Amino acid sequence: MLVSEREQLRANIERQIQDYGNNRSALIPVLQEVQLKYGHVSEYVMQVVADILNIHPVEIYGVASFYSFIGHKQKGRFIIRLCRTISCDMQGKDRVARQLENDLGIRFGETTPDGNFTLEWANCLGMCDQGPAMLVNERIYTQVTPDSVHDILEECRKVFGVHTLQEKEMLCELPTQAK
Ligand code: FES
C-alpha cells in the first residue's frame, strides 16, 4: 500500500472513530465498517485502531478473530455465505454448495482469482423455515436451489460488466432484504 493510501486509510479510520465516540465502544463498528468498505481488516488497520483507541493490538486481533464477519485476508467483492446449520442442511444446502463451487471453480474458504467472489460457510441466518439460506454481502436469499445459484451469480456478474463503479459500490452495500 502506498504511503498516501495509508494516510487516507488512517484519516478514514480517525473520522469513523470520532463518529462512534473515541472509546472502546467504537471498536467493533469501526472494524465492521472497514470490513465492508475494504473487504478485510489488515494488520495495518488493526495497528491504527489500536493506536487511536489506546488498546493493545493483540486485543484488536482477538476481537477481529472472534467475529466471523471480520476477515484478515483480502476477500472478494461479493462474499457469499451459505448457512450450514441443521435446518438448511436438511433442506439441501449440500446441493447448493456443490453448485456454487462448480460455478465459481473454488472451494469454500477460497476467493476467485479475479477477486470477485469469496465462498464462506455461515451459521444460522435466522431464516430456518425458508432454507437453504444464503447471504451475498448483506443481501439474504432464501429457498436457494442449484438453479437459482446460477441466476444469483449472473446478477452479481452483471454488476461488473454493466454498471459504473459507483453503482457497483451501491449494490455491494445494499441493506439486508429478503428476496
Ligand atoms: S439453519 Fe439456516 S437459516 Fe437457520
TrEMBL record:
Superkingdom classification of source: Bacteria
Keyword field contains Oxidoreductase: yes
Co-factor requirement: [2Fe-2S] cluster
Details of cofactor binding: Binds 1 [2Fe-2S] cluster.
Entry EC no(s): 1.6.5.11
Keyword field: 2Fe-2S, Iron, Iron-sulfur, Metal-binding, Oxidoreductase
InterPro entries: NuoE-like, NuoE_dom, NuoE_N, Thioredoxin-like_sf
Sites where the protein binds [2Fe-2S] cluster: 83, 88, 124, 128
SUPFAM superfamilies: Thioredoxin-like
PANTHER family the UniProt entry points to: NADH DEHYDROGENASE [UBIQUINONE] FLAVOPROTEIN 2, MITOCHONDRIAL, NADH DEHYDROGENASE UBIQUINONE FLAVOPROTEIN 2, MITOCHONDRIAL
Stated family: Belongs to the complex I 24 kDa subunit family.
Protein name per its UniProtKB record: NADH-quinone oxidoreductase subunit NuoE
Species lineage: Bacteria, Pseudomonadati, Kiritimatiellota, Tichowtungiia, Tichowtungiales
Name of the gene: nuoE
